[in-house]
Amino acid sequence: MEKINPFENMLSVLTATAEMMGLSESDYVVLKYPEREVKVAVPVEMDDGSVRVFEGYRVQHNSARGPYKGGLRFHPNTDLDEVKALAAWMSFKCAVADIPYGGAKGGITVDPATLSKPELERLTRNFTERIAPVIGPDKDIPAPDVNTNAEIMGWIMDTYSRLTGAPRPGVVTGKPIEIGGSLGRTAATASGVCMIAKMALRHFGIDEMASRFAVQGLGNVGGLTAQILFDGGHKVTCVSDVNGCVHNEAGLNITEIRDFLKNGGKLNEYKAAGVEQLPREAILTIDCDVLVPCALENQLTGANADKVQAKIVVEGANGPTTPEADEILKNRGIPVVPDILANCGGVVVSYFEWVQDLQNYYWDEETVAQRLTQKMELAFKAVVEQADKYNATLRKGAYAVAIGRIIAAEKIRKSWH
Ligand code: GLU
User: Fold this and answer.
1) Among candidates 15, 10, 9, 17, which has minimal Cα distance to 29?
2) What is the pLDDT of residues 58-87, one digit of tens each?
3) How many CB atoms neighbour CB 363 within 10 A?
4) Among the options 93, 105, 175, 235, which is catalytic?
5) In this predicted model, what pLDDT tens digit does every residue of 237-247 receive, in sequence order?
6) Separation of 374 CA from ligand 1 center, angstroms?
7) Going by CATH, does the domain composed of 7-14+32-168 fall within 3.90.226.10?
8) Cβ atoms of 350 and 174 closer than 8 Å
């Protein structure tokens, strides 16, 4: 299969939206290029005494609206083009959420499942040292993404603090609560996905409680999205992860499935009354009402978009739908709620965490939840307004919001002067 380049995908949506908005090339050309791309070699002593060198990246796309912000992913397929696309999407996402950040992304090309815990810690700490010159609480603030978590963020906070001689909780978000993390950050992306999914269902007149949800991915985003839906009495009829896909038209017991996986079970070995095992790609084309891809990019493509049976797609993952698939889904009347809107709840609570760190004053869970809801509602409204204005898809509406806000800041600051 031909490799799909996510950065090219980003550029094609950016260009199409800028044209739709009637912008000239000079208005938005800076957004086509990341401001800085850092590639580092990260040496690690393995448990057997040998030394291996891993490749890592930090790409800083745009800083017109504030310090760079975005996650770090540890994945064997992570490469520069992927990180570049993800960095640009962070600039757009922070603008859609209207939080004062630019966008960045980083990663290491590694399968963390092949490392021991001490190896993973050494890798993280050495990577932090290598990118330390370009990150910082007022420069660029990393966060969790695919295969990274609060514990890893804690190692980053500690390494950066040691290097700079004082505790610097604001250098990274998604940290453990004990060292300056925010209440509500772990579930924030998933909570936001659920809120936006419900707003979208209401907007398109689809009955939320009668809807069958299919969730691809059972990590921090997919697992918690499925859980929140299940806890809220919604019917989750299909879930998948790297190992498999399970389906039950009567609804799956998500708590039981997540416990089974936590205890070392594999999804393709999960058995329960009424549950059928399917190949893992089946999730994308299963008969359901709401498809929520929460895994990696390029899942819905020209090869399968014509077989999607959902009434609506809500992107929990970053970049799960290619432009070709977008076009097919649009022509088939299946709305796609774009990643930069649907999954922005994570970075919104990252922003809240950073604000709390900078003020050394911590909020209760209710305050976080309330402010998150408010941000998500405003973001949804802004996107729908632009989509309506241009009679365009929600993706183009979201890009229009983002591009409009970023170039407004660019025009004041004039980075080209
Ligand atoms: N990795 C998440 C995302 O893609 C969160 C980024 C952040 O909190 O900075 O939105």
Assistant:
1) 15
2) 999 999 999 999 999 999 999 999 999 999
3) 18
4) 105
5) 999 999 999 99
6) 18
7) no
8) yes
Question: Tens of pLDDT along 24-40?
Answer: 999 999 999 999 999 99
Output b/e per residue, 58-83; b: 16+ Cβ within 10 A. bbbbbbbbbbbbbbbbbbeebbbbbb
pLDDT in the model for residue 4:
83
pTM score: 0.97
Please provide the average confidence, as pLDDT, over all residues in the chain.
97
Q: How far apart are CA 166 and CA 180, in angstroms?
A: 14
407's enclosing H/E stretch is helix 394-413
Neighbouring C-beta atoms of residue 141, cutoff 10 Å: 26
> What's the pLDDT at 166?
98
Q: Report the distance separating Cα 230 and Cα 217, nearest Å.
A: 15
- CB contact at 8 A, 249 and 237: yes
Residue-range domain boundaries for the chain: 7-14+32-168, 188-342
Q: Which atom number of ligand 1 is nearest to the Cα of residue 173?
A: 8
Contacts of residue 134, defined as CB under 8 A and 6 or more positions apart, other chains included, come to 36, 38, 58, 60, 140
Nearest Cα residue to 78 out of 39, 47, 46, 117: 39
Tell me if domain 7-14+32-168 and domain 188-342 are identical in fold: yes
pLDDT bracket for residue 2 (50, 70, 90): low
CB 83 within 8 A of CB 106: yes
Q: Which of 58, 145, 315, 354 to mutate to test the pocket of ligand 1 (most atoms within 8 A of CB)?
A: 145
Nearest ligand 1 atom to the CA of 347 is 8
Residue 269 carries which side chain, given as an amino acid letter? E
Burial degree of 271 (CB within 10 A; 0-12, 13-18, 19+):
exposed
Measured from CB, residues less than 6 Å from any atom of ligand 1 are 69-71, 93, 143, 145, 173, 318, 343, 346-347, 350
Tell me the one-letter amino acid at 397.
G
**Cα separations in angstroms, 182 against 29, 173, 302:** 36, 8, 40
State the pLDDT at residue 351: 98
Q: Which CATH number fits domain 188-342: 3.30.200.20, 2.40.30.170, 3.40.50.720, 3.20.20.70?
A: 3.40.50.720
**Residue 375 designated active-site:** no
Tokens at residue 188, please?
């924030």
Residue 395, classed as helix, strand or coil, is: helix
Task: Supply angle C-alpha 339, 322, 173, rounded to 5.
Answer: 30
Share of the chain above pLDDT 90, in %: 99
